[in-house]
Amino acid sequence: MTTIRQQDFIDSIADSLQYISYYHPADYIKALGDAYEREQSAAAKDAIAQILTNSRMCAEGHRPICQDTGIVCAFVKVGMDVKWADVTMSIQDMVNEGVRQAYNHPDNKLRASVLADPAGARKNTRDNTPAIVHFDLVPGNTVDVSIAAKGGGSENKSKFVMLNPSDSIVDWVLKTVPAMGAGWCPPGMLGIGIGGTAEKAMLLAKQSLMDHIDIQDLIARGPQNRIEELRIELYQKVNALGIGAQGLGGLSTVLDVKILDYPTHAASLPVAMIPNCAATRHVHFELDGSGPARLEPPKLEDWPAVTWTPSAQARRVDLNTVTRADVESWKPGETLLLNGKLLTGRDAAHKRMVDMLARGETLPVDFANRFIYYVGPVDPVRDEVVGPAGPTTATRMDKFTRQMLEQTGLLGMVGKAERGQTAIDAIKDNHAVYLMAVGGAAYLVSKAIKAARVVAFEDLGMEAIYEFDVQDMPVTVAVDSQGTSVHQTGPAEWQKKISLMPNH
Asked: What average pLDDT score do residues 322-337 get?
């Protein structure tokens, strides 16, 4: 009989969450490096270069791959021959304590993103607890743990459908993936659960994402069952959509498609799909009574020799003096390097601001001729001015965009992925602009921030309004002042190009 100490379990949870905050899984790095070599779209290749460079920087600096350090999800399998020593807590409480310690680690503080009272006050729990824990009693004498930290950008794009038994799963996926936009930060993985009941299908989709990336090996040896056939078909057909890295158009949208299935009712075909983003964070460990989990760090030579540098053609912009005439001269897809003072604000700040404007109140910050960055940064450690500060999904701010542009004099916005038509129309009508920063490159982006201070709504924590001083912060013109969106033109162009390629 194996004896597991409570502290060993807690320490293992804490260590694993620190580990996955700054180390990508090695299989993902290899798959992304291969995708970089294959990529023919200049914009997508540049985005992948930023993600790979960021990944290596995080491994070296032990800082988060993405500012969104996720909500913790743990799958715990407890062997029925395991004995627990000195246990005073439930498994849920032990996981929560590990989360608490990991997220408050003084040398790598992680962003607390979990809000209690989700339908009411939405108050930050400040330590990222509670975690989502699934546990099973299984034969054996070990404790097996798969743990992930799921960011809101990818998790929010999860889909579920109850198909008729005669419906095509492939058709549903190919219809659904383009509608997900790029806020889930491709290239990543799709996890698909088929069968069981509604909640079982979702659980299967989540579990499938814990598996190793092996689609190229599968293609090389050939499928041996229907699920493997389906994986290959979906991998090829989703990539043929041309969505590409960050939705800019390109060859690689998914690096793998994972599928788990379960028997289901004769009248049912439940299908769930959960994407895993470019900041994929998960690890597996086993406790056998010999102490805490030992997690092997990757070697720096595991990363491809890719280092992102700004293009010589990039246009430098002074945010302190930029004018609407300047903004109107920027072209779709153009790379800009931002310099000067940049304000921040995301969901909670926008909601508070538009409510203030509706009441005729003066905002605490003047946005006239300024730019706003949709971000909730990680707290700084050591000599940092700010922690990793990558963009958040911009579509969540669409409903606020017209009011902000028309009532505050805002010139433009910086965020992640595409804008919806509501925001595009508002941008066009006001001759404003939307700029895209690369999701999955948060630490790299944060190196461009030379100073940071909270200027309003301090009570909102990471959702407060900051003022950043930035130096050569890389962005792409994603929606120009005429309303042209590269997230519409890029994938359309690359879908057509892919369809004309030999062997397609």
From this structure: 97
Bridge partners, residue 78, by sequence:
137, 143
Cα–Cα nearest to 152, from 67, 246, 210: 67
Q: Which two tokens stand for residue 146?
A: 């798969």
Enter the pTM of the model. Answer: 0.96
Contacts of 459 (CB under 8 A, 6+ apart): none
pLDDT at position 503 is: 73
* CATH assignment at residue 401: 3.20.130.10
Give the number of domains in the chain.
2
Q: How far apart are CA 206 and CA 278, in angstroms?
A: 16
Predicted confidence (pLDDT) per residue in 362-382, tens digit = 999 999 999 999 999 999 999
- Confidence band of 291 (pLDDT split at 50, 70, 90): very high
Q: Flag whether 504 is in a domain.
A: no
How much is the pLDDT for 504? Answer: 65
pLDDT of residue 502: 83
**Tally of residues, the chain:** 504
The verdict on residue 310 lying in a domain is no
Tell the burial category of 469 from Cβ atoms under 10 Å away from its Cβ (0-12, 13-18, 19+).
middle
Q: Categorise residue 71: left if φ over 0, alpha if ψ from -120 to 50, beta otherwise.
A: beta
User: Over pLDDT 70: what percentage of the chain?
Assistant: 100
Per-residue b/e over 263-301, b at no fewer than 16 CB within 10 Å? Answer: ebeeeebbbbbbbbbbbbbbbbbebebeebbeeeeeeee
Instruction: Look up residue 183 and give its two tokens.
Output: 């806020």
Residue 209 domain boundaries: 2-287
Helices H / strands E in the chain, number of each: 15, 19
Say if 295 falls within a structural domain: no
The packing angle between helices 6-22 and 42-61, to 10°, is 140
Tokens of 101: 């310690």
Q: What is the pLDDT of residue 311?
A: 87
Sequence-ordered strand ranges (E) for 18-172: 71-79, 82-85, 115-116, 123-124, 132-138, 143-150, 159-163
251 and 348 assigned to the same domain:
no
Residue 157 tokens read as 């794009």
